[in-house]
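Exercise: predict the fold of this chain.
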Amino acid sequence: MKLREIFKGIDLIKVDGDMDREISAVCCDSRKTENDSVFVAVKGLKVNGHDFLSDAIKRGAKALVVENNIMGRGHGSGVREKLAPCPPKQVRGRLLPLAPDVTYITVPDSRKALALMSDRFYGRPSEDMSIIGITGTNGKTTTSYLISSIIEAEGFKTGIVGTIDYRFDGEIIPAPNTTPESLDLHGLFRKMSDRKVKYCVMEVSSHSLELDRVYGTRFETGVFTNLTRDHLDFHNTMEMYFGAKARLFREYGLKKAVINIDDPYGRRLLNDVKADRVLSYGIEERADVMARDISISRKGLKFICDAPSGKFEVESRLIGRHNVYNILAAIAAAILEGFSRESIEKGVLSLDAVSGRLEKIEEGQDFTVLVDYAHTDDALKNVLNAARGLPHNKIFSVFGCGGDRDRGKRPLMGRIGAEYSDFAIITSDNPRSEDPNKIMEEIEKGILDNRQVSKPVNWTKIPDRRKAIEFAISRASGEDIVIIAGKGHEDYQILGDRKIRFDDREVAKEAIRNRGRV
């Protein structure tokens, strides 16, 4: 594809070089740069792509895209010797590496440029399918699987892009991010389109909206689940966090929107959403799609759904009141898509589990073990309440908080863990560069500051996550329930700069099998 075609409709500040050259690929990682490719320099959270322009040239880039006013005079200064005798190129105070037969393009925003370039390079694939974007703090993954199950029951091919993995037409790709970088995202859309995928259901993270990873994507439908504290290490305030989520409903030209109005941020969003058709859902507030007569057991849940087209009974193998909300969101989205009631009922019932979401661990034990991804105070409260809604004797919770992330939620997690379980075991999650003991002390503070709860508070701290899980399982019996929260589907743990193999589900199974042997 010619460079000029890739940049059609994209704002440019300056072009120096041939725009009619053929380009083999679009790249934003200099290590993956190919011959005759265009390299887009993007400023990331930890590294700046403008520092790797010389590397991109050496690897074969024939065009460089840089952001206006982002580079200082020192950037690229080491290029002069490696690319001699070519001198550096001076552009409005910037020092850029100069190489023969390279086109230099300056844009106002290289992130947005990358997204639009990717869309054009891959042939605008998001226009070939209906894309349903789901955003919110909790429930995105389960809701996406529910919607996908309904779509398949209706007889269409579907793709999923989300926290667990990216999947379509039998292919499963590990997910490094909930929402991939725009270049990878449009590449995924292209593959889906080529395989006749009709619908793509994707989780849209606040990071992806703020960092323009989904910029240029044509969303058909947007779904808002809820908003509770998370990612404030990145967004700083809840208002900024909400503003990032709300961008999907304000800026992306949605045709349809689904909003949880039991959530206060959802009620705010309902008055501000820009979409042709909007359906609200809820349990408490009067909504377009509602659940009543809710029955929850170990086998699943049942309720009556009141919808614009009438009422019908819903059955699901999922457990917990929070999953009623996820199902309502999926039903509302399906109604907007025009799917039949039969497909809705079949799709909801056929989804028996989602990886790492209240996933049952069965090794013949007489008590219940559930592994869940809950890593916010609200999510932990939801899963513990789900457990409390089941017949039980004692509830044991195992949880921690990630290092180098929002510290403010740590005492909140501690308070919830102690208040909603009978025995809380505080442990490490992904401590990253932080001391696990310091993280646990901050979690414990939420317990120490809130010991005036109406029941005795029992807790302990065990830094080693494996030993914490083993401790909980060694104490459980009969009607007890063990909740292992925080990592869910993840099969690793990040300790310092090391990423080790660690899967809560595997560890729990081993601990159950080893009961009584120690």
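Check your answer against the key: The radius of gyration is 25 Å.
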